[in-house]
Amino acid sequence: MEAAGVCLRCGKPYEPGDTVCYSCGAPIGETQTPTQPVRAVRRPPPPPEPEESAPPLPATPTAAARPSLPAVATASMRMPTAPATVRRRVWPRVLLLCLVVLAALGGAAYAERKLTAALPVASTAIYQDAGHHFRFQRPALWTLAASDAGVTLTDSDGVSIARVLVAEPAAGEDAAAHADALAKRIGLQAAPTRDFAGETWQQRTGQVAGADGVVRQEVILVAARDSTLYTIEFSSPVATFTSLDNLVFQPLLDSFAFT
């Protein structure tokens, strides 16, 4: 026989021998939740969603994996591969650019040297006139024609001339008057005097068009010494005068001496 107690559903007391609670009608001993089993309805699981292709995230090292230092060091050493490849690709271009610049500079220097190069003179020799009036240094490859009046030097092309003449002055004629007479004949102008060989020389210069149509630079120098007039004449096409002046004419004046 069931002892007296309290209904587990509504909390009302019941008497011994009761099989149900007369307050709520629940069987004696029933819990507060229904005792009849409830049929569970099972639903099919939802289909799996497609996974997105994403780069894998670096795994967080666990406590056991943290001491694995060699693996971390190896991975960090591989990172400079891309910059090293870029440097290997850039260096050939830089080298090629440097070679192009050097070639351009070398070509420009060669062209400038060819344009400004003086005409070659193989060697020189000392000329002494037969009358022992003067001597000077001359280019050995130039043609020499001597006479009682002096000497004439002509280059291999026959277009440039260096001449030294000796003459007795006319009555009352000095170096300036003689220079003026020669300058007037071919149309030269007065220029500053020059000092060499111990004398002051009258100078006349100008450009003269020859019968062949070539414009030449003409220079005349006249000095008087021991009652004798000395005349030095230079003639060369304008295009080559500067080179010949450096190689032939100036060395001739620097080496000129009275004997």
Distinctive features:
three-stranded antiparallel β-sheet; 4 helices; alpha+beta; Protein Transport Mog1p, Chain A; 259 residues; 12 strands
What can you tell me about this protein's structure?
It is a single chain. The protein has about 260 residues and is an alpha+beta fold. Among the domains are: about 1-30, no CATH class; about 125-259, 3-Layer(aba) Sandwich (Protein Transport Mog1p, Chain A), CATH 3.40.1000.10. It has four helices and twelve strands; from the N terminus they run E-E-H-H-E-E-E-E-E-H-E-E-E-E-H-E. It has helices spanning about 70-75, 80-115, 175-185, 240-255; strands at about 5, 15, 125-130, 135-140, 145, 150-155, 160-165, 190-195, 200-210, 215-225, 230-235, 255-259. The longest helix has about 35 residues, at about 80-115. The termini are far apart. About 15% of the residues are buried.
Topology, element by element:
Layout: E1 5-6, E2 13-14, H1 69-77, H2 81-116, E3 124-128, E4 134-139, E5 143-147, E6 150-154, E7 161-167, H3 175-186, E8 189-196, E9 199-209, E10 215-225, E11 228-237, H4 238-255, E12 257-258
Antiparallel strand pairs: 1-2, 3-4, 4-12, 5-6, 6-7, 7-11, 8-9, 9-10, 10-11
